[in-house]
Design goal:
With 386 residues, the chain is of the alpha/beta class. It folds into 2 domains: 43 residues; 321 residues, Glycosidases (TIM Barrel, Alpha-Beta Barrel), CATH 3.20.20. Helix 3 crosses helix 5, helix 5 runs parallel beside helix 6 and helix 8 packs parallel to helix 9.
Length: 386
Amino acid sequence: MKKKRTYCKNIILILALIITIFSGFLIYTKTSFSERRDYVKRRLINFQSKNYWIFGTNIPWIGPGYGHDLGLDPLHPDWGRSYDNPQLKADFNQYLKNCKENGMHVIRIWLFERSEGLIFDNSGAVVMIEDGMLNNILDVMNKIGENDLYVYWTLTSSWKGPERNRRYLITDPVKRHSYISNAIIPLIGTLKSSRYFDRVFAIDIHNEIENEIKWTANGSWGGEITWEQAYEYINAVSAAIKSAAPKLLVTSSSGYHGLENIKAGRFNNLNLDFLDGHVYTDSGKLKYSWKELNVNKPVLIGEIGQNSDKWDDELQNKAVGNLINEAWNKGYAGVLQWCYGYPGTDEIHSLVYSNGSFRPVASTMRKFDEEHRDIINIGYARSKRE
């Protein structure tokens, strides 16, 4: 009888131990899942109520028409709009088809570089966007939608320049208001009039705002404004966009110093939906993980590429391939390769050779997309990991 009691006691102890361990496992699993779910949601970009990892490329200007592709250059209107050429329209459509076939889903395009498409009065205030540019923007929207892609519009790359310094659009409240009222609001109205408005992924207010900032003597990039002036400008433009299209995602990208200015907290208190930093490195290694940036918003790496100034297929493929995987493994919200290029280009970062055929890095990007399309990507169904 004593042996039986001892046996039963041991059974009870074993069962109690099993229950304790299992309960702990359930608590750990629930906590881990909750934390993992929260981490995924915080690091990804919420677009149209779904969380996505963003993947694509930059076509900053279409063909060789920097500063006069979609609109007229205000100082050289005789150059015309290169996109008015039917052949370039057809070429651009083919670029987009090529992007889709190679696993790229978001295309980043610049708008007002070199003040393109803007009409100014004698005081320097913005009067309007010329109609030809608005028509071309609608044509681009059609091609984006018809090719099952998304567009990431960047408003401008710089207001500086010896022959057209328009930094007053940042610093002068009256001139800034003219830009917002007579360019930004009409632009959003034009985008909303497109049947493919839902294909606008986001608006980048200013490409690499650092190029406008006045730095110390040993770190100057030739800028003239302060960070405080930049913040006022970014928040004013962001508020205007949100008032016209509340659900449209807005950011303002960081560059020149990799991710350092994001890590330093210089973009923390802005009215932005996500952050966008640009990284160029030959090794393809990211210095920081998303967590190490100590930000509370997703971070897209909106430009990636090699740092060396030479045409080198192997180097480009290694740098871009490593950066894609680093971004994926270190918690970033996606990457956009710099840049697609165009036939005849000598741009070292181009996806294509001068004859228009793809360089090896395109295959690397397509393979990554094929391996991850069923997990998280804006071009496919909702994430299974949400």
